[in-house]
Amino acid sequence: MNEKYTPLFQPLTLPNGITLRNRFVLAPLTHVSSNEDGTISDRELPYIEKRSEDVGLAITAASNVTALGKAFPGQPSIARDSDIEGLRQQAAVMKKNGAKAVAQIHHGGAQSLPKLTPDGDVAAPSTIELASFGEPQKHQARPITKEEIEETIQAFGEATRRAAQAGFDGVEIHGANHYLIQQFVSPYYNRRDDEWADPFKFPLAVVDEVTASAREHGGDNFIVGYRFSPEEAESPGITMELTKELIDQLADQPLDYFHVSLMDIHSETREGPYYGKKRIQLIHDWIDGRAPLVGIGSIFTADDALSALETGTELVCLGRELLLDYQFVRKIQEGREHEINATFDPNEPTKYHVPEPLWQQLYNGFYPLPRNDG
């Protein structure tokens, strides 16, 4: 291995005492490949096994905690005890070569798809119209009731129990990408006039429920992470100032890592008092060592990964690149970084060893990828 890449292979111990073997993380990639009922399919197991082989931490695709929260075709479910057997198989293949396996737990909120939810029902913090995954037209989400809010919080706890019973090493709370938890934080989505108008009340309630369930069912070493998006394009939306407040609230909770969702790890703040500053560095400073930070976004080469680590983020998350080359980490470790494939070829005969539904999404441009069209 080229000596300059050594820092990427240093172990890291999380606050709960679990040690990750290196600084690489498999991102929670939407793969649209679970069975129609949300159970784990045979085709997704080899896909995620390959991409978990060499990382320190591997995260599943977003897995819905309630039927009302289903946001993707082929989305895995963690909403029923009957899901546990398939989840157990998934956890086993992810952990097979030494990675720690984490299930990402998720509720789509306004972005849930009417064609996938019971009776076409969609609920969000407040009434809103939008088009979600692959929809040709907008749908309307109704305000979620107080009773449903409490039920959803409990569902995140139950999903954590199922993850522990399935053999996962932890869960990641999906508070990013315009899904339900982020919607409660955002003034664009949350225009309530009750106690749930507080942007931090719902995410903190979910964290409390999940961490309590983790201790009860997974033990002291069960990992709990939290993913968030730091800035919204919508107005009024989440700003970096609001994100700083959110981090200050969350960093005192028993969380083992933060995961910031970015398309480019070196992206800069678009407006406000932090305009022009790198988001990743601001966030790392605000966390102030209270938990490791996972950074992601446009990491396609070994030097990209090293540059990401040099921002201060403790863990480097790979999403699109591990779709293109599941041996990315191994090639760096073996001194073969020049062999890494970092472009999408629509004529690739192996179809990158991904399930056919995901291949179709890649082919149609669902993930923005550097392309090689010959």
Treating each run of at least 4 consecutive H or I residues as one helix, how many helices? 11
Instruction: Count the beta strands.
Output: 14
Order of neighbouring strands in the sheet with most strands? 3-4-6-10-11-12-13-14
Structural class: alpha/beta
- How much helicity do the residues have? 25-40%
Q: Any idea what the shape is?
A: globular
Percent of sequence in beta strands: 5-15%
Q: Which parts are unreliable, with pLDDT below 50 for 5 consecutive residues or more?
A: none
- The Cα radius of gyration reads 19 Å
Order of helices and strands: EEEHEEHEEEEHEHHEHEHEHEHHH
Distance between the termini: 31 Å
What integer is the average pLDDT? 97
Main β-sheet, in a few words?
A: 8 strands, parallel, barrel
Overview of the structural elements:
The structure is a single chain. The protein is of the alpha/beta class. The chain has helices at residues 44-52, 84-95, 146-165, 180-185, 201-218, 240-250, 279-287, 302-309, 320-324, 328-333, 356-363; strands at 12-13, 19-20, 24-26, 57-59, 63-64, 100-106, 123-124, 128-130, 139-143, 170-175, 223-228, 257-260, 293-296, 315-318. The strands form three sheets. The chain has an eight-stranded parallel β-barrel, surrounded by five helices. Strands 7-9-8 form a three-stranded mixed sheet. Strand 1 and strand 2 (19-20) form a beta hairpin. The radius of gyration is 19 Å and the shape is globular. It starts with 11 loop residues before the first strand and ends in an 11-residue tail after the last helix. The model has no long low-confidence stretch (mean pLDDT 97).
